[in-house]
């Protein structure tokens, strides 16, 4: 009788534990939704080619195309320091809304509390010339004489459109320190977010890209001086690397 | 009585089935992906609704070269897309069966299955190779025919019904099946054996002049050709996208803008591949430049500003990228390494 009572208590205990676990899954999927702004104004495929904005330096400008690359999405658990690196990279073309979201094929992680980081562009290990067939097919390559690999950003348009319109090509990638002898400097940036992301269930993380920050912080960008060509301009490349630091922020975190 | 009826019905079904060839399947066509493509770019687009078959490709090839598609039987697709001219016609603007010229230069045809956007023609009007093949047949400036009559001619032809049956398991000919077969043939037109391809594969070397030309091509502060025309890692040598490259201040031909209705697209045309330039003059959508030298001079000093000019066009106010004479010669030497003589002499692509 005593043995039966103990057995029943164990079963009841297990049942209680199970029902507790059912209320909070042990793992969940994480997906990323990117939105793009110029400060408070949303930019997407509908207004990319029609919106006019004024940068920090006072130039009125427009956009013909904006494409960029992000890689190594990584969640770090703030309790135990465990990291989860999501496979793949995100190549975004603002004219194609289908490229705005990102779901890695290994996007299931244990529930918990995390911080996010990702890499602007490719880090040195990933930035292998010609290695990614989809990016080659999109002509996203950074020329070999400039260090090879891939573009991180291609933003094209015109500035001073209210006076004497001129073209700008705000392209970012490997920085060439010297042409002869060729010396190249990796130009990626690790973007860390300090907000805590609670993953209790399948989670959607909004990342906001504020494009105006490329022209603002810490370097106020003067397109009259730095418009094109910028790819072989070492100082311009390093300024872009500095300015990308504040471009991204976290938006809404939703669970479902 | 019931059994007799069943037997009759079964026989009827079998009879009908034999008309549409139950049991027969066309032979799948193994599209050979060149090493330089397999190593560098993603797979070609082959629609699941129109898989390549040996019989379909053969039928498409025959139709491509057959003047039966034109109203008076005088011209075929190949009249304006000749194999020896890398499937263009070397005319400024193509001339149709009535002796009238159209508004545009005939586009060369190769590597079409790698046009990932699937927008064809200079203006992107055709949204697949299959639909592209529809329009020229009835265009009064091209084959000036009537599809109903074309289908009738094909249906009454002594051989075509059987060729369609072999390709599509039905001898009932339609516009859809006709254009499907032409599209199948066009997808087999692959050019990937230029001197530069062999250089990329480590099979040959380039001269110092050709290498310097490549450097000019890839330098944003020199030619800056690569943003639209690919690079050694994209052997298509086109982005297949649409740009206003600064040909005109005002547009007599709106290009993509006439298709989308968006004024921001006015004056934009599809980037042509730089492969086989040696065989495909004249150049641009209206064939305005007779020689490669004229094209290089245009990008160097001849750009015209307009409201939709692509910002990738450099130094527009000075007319262009301002190349020196030696830079121009080197760039030309490099561009000619992209020519593939084996493509224009490939027996699979001849009539």
TrEMBL record, chain A:
Protein name: Copper-binding protein MbnP-like domain-containing protein
Keywords linked to the UniProt accession: Signal
Segment forming the signal sequence: 1-19
Coiled-coil intervals, chain numbering: none
PROSITE patterns: PROKAR_LIPOPROTEIN (PS51257)
InterPro entries: MbnP-like_dom
Domain Copper-binding protein MbnP-like: from-to ranges: 28-217
Record keyword Signal present: yes
Organism lineage string: Bacteria, Pseudomonadati, Bacteroidota, Flavobacteriia, Flavobacteriales
Biological source species: Winogradskyella pelagia
Automatic annotation (TrEMBL), chain B:
Gene Ontology MF terms: peroxidase activity
Compartmental location: Periplasm
Species: Winogradskyella pelagia
One Pfam short name: CCP_MauG
Residue ranges constituting the Cytochrome c domain according to the UniProt record: 55-158, 208-339
Listed name of the protein: Cytochrome-c peroxidase
InterPro entries: Cyt_c-like_dom, Cyt_c-like_dom_sf, Cytochrome_c_Peroxidase/MauG, Di-haem_cyt_c_peroxidsae, MauG/Cytc_peroxidase
Gene3D superfamilies: Cytochrome c-like domain (1.10.760.10)
Primary localization class, coarse: periplasm
Key words of the record: Heme, Iron, Metal-binding, Oxidoreductase, Periplasm, Peroxidase, Signal
Classification of source organism: Bacteria, Pseudomonadati, Bacteroidota, Flavobacteriia, Flavobacteriales
SUPFAM superfamilies linked to this entry: Cytochrome c (SSF46626)
